[in-house]
């Protein structure tokens, strides 16, 4: 059994902006079931504090002249031990975890997540008299990137693992911020936290963690290339022997069409015809024409360029010339929200755009849809295509990252051998998006379509397999650490 301190800046169901929250809410419980002793460290945002029950005080300390308390509670869903970094000056404010009400990053994000990392370091080095010290510190994304950098300065430290969920978000700040945070001067160099004259939080994890992984095998290979490396491909090439990819799982109890609490008509492979009832109900709910013979395309996404919004909008006129309905749920860049809403206003019988995140609607759309649209320019793992597979809603995706690792194109050969479960764009262009959609519609309401659905729903997408891969990675990190200590 290993003692693992898991660092995350968001955690479903307490606080969520993206896939990290889903992973943080599912992987630690899966590791607990495999015998690991987990402690999850999370900032005490107001939204989190409203949802947790009676946290108790573990320790008090100070950083940057701010009082910081470490609180403990447990998640009622699974009993997971949750430690909260309670620092009102850093985290007690309205808005999101990273951005304010105007959609701009908090001006003091560097200070906020430096405090978060300093708490992690003090726990890791047994400085807070907790009578608990981790064997492994597992950080996620730039918000926890300083922890491996600071820990590597100490000879008697735990092993470290750093997981990249999206390399495009790097935690970049100016050099003055590095000085203001009073970080060790020895960390400011090309092979350290310095990135073209800026402070890079994510480099702390990439350069100094014993092991680094991404959330799909294909993305782990892609980020070694200039196209996907976001300027860090040189460092990642240098550390490629410590880099690997583990495909995310999903919480198969939450995302299960047979037992989904948000569905009025649950279904499985044995009663797949029930799926169409969910489509009828959603068409009624959203004011779309109720017609089981019109393919319903769903999209649940952050509305940002990465997710393929450019090629969707370029092809929208031609897409809406097809006999389809399109439902898009998400929030993101204002210009995408406005353009999509414009199309929805012009074609109210074909397209509905719901701005904002809505968990019940997300489940109902996954169940109601015939196709799921996810033509990302890059996708570290992606979860919605996996949810879609489990719900028999065939994904239409780009051939990148985790999409390439989970969706098998319905070409003639893959259909023949029974592995096809969706549709893959040859290239990420509007023309290929439309051509692939037309190809999918050519199979709509055929026996082949049902076979694709059954194949999609038949795979195991649970965390159990992925969690075992993380156990293997923990053992490698511990081995690296022991080797370094001689």
What does the secondary structure layout of this molecule look like, with pairings?
Blueprint: E1 3-7, H1 19-33, E2 37-43, H2 46-51, E3 56-63, E4 66-74, E5 81-86, H3 88-91, H4 109-124, E6 136-140, H5 146-151, E7 159-164, E8 172-173, H6 175-180, E9 194-195, E10 198-200, H7 201-208, E11 211-214, H8 217-222, H9 226-229, H10 233-238, E12 243-245, H11 275-286, E13 296-303, H12 309-314, H13 316-319, E14 325-332, H14 334-346, E15 351-355, H15 359-368, E16 371-374, H16 384-390, E17 394-397, H17 401-406, H18 412-417, E18 423-424, H19 430-443, H20 447-458, H21 463-485
Parallel strand pairs: 1-2, 1-6, 2-5, 6-7, 7-11, 11-12, 13-14, 13-16, 14-15, 16-17, 17-18
Antiparallel strand pairs: 3-4, 4-5, 8-10, 9-10
Helix pairs in contact: 1-21, 11-15
Describe the overall structure:
By secondary structure, the chain is an alpha/beta fold. It has two domains: 3-249 and 464-485, Rossmann fold; 269-461, Rossmann fold (3-Layer(aba) Sandwich), CATH 3.40.50.2000. Helices cover 39% and strands 19% of the residues. It contains 21 helices and 18 strands. It has helices spanning 19-33, 46-51, 88-91, 109-124, 146-151, 175-180, 201-208, 217-222, 226-229, 233-238, 275-286, 309-314, 316-319, 334-346, 359-368, 384-390, 401-406, 412-417, 430-443, 447-458, 463-485, and strands at residues 3-7, 37-43, 56-63, 66-74, 81-86, 136-140, 159-164, 172-173, 194-195, 198-200, 211-214, 243-245, 296-303, 325-332, 351-355, 371-374, 394-397, 423-424. The strands form three sheets. A nine-stranded mixed β-sheet has the order 3-4-5-2-1-6-7-11-12, with helices on both faces. Strands 15-14-13-16-17-18 form a six-stranded parallel β-sheet, with helices on both faces. A three-stranded antiparallel β-sheet has the order 8-10-9. Helix 11 packs across helix 15. The longest helix is centred in the C-terminal third of the chain and has 23 residues, at 463-485. 48% of the residues are buried.
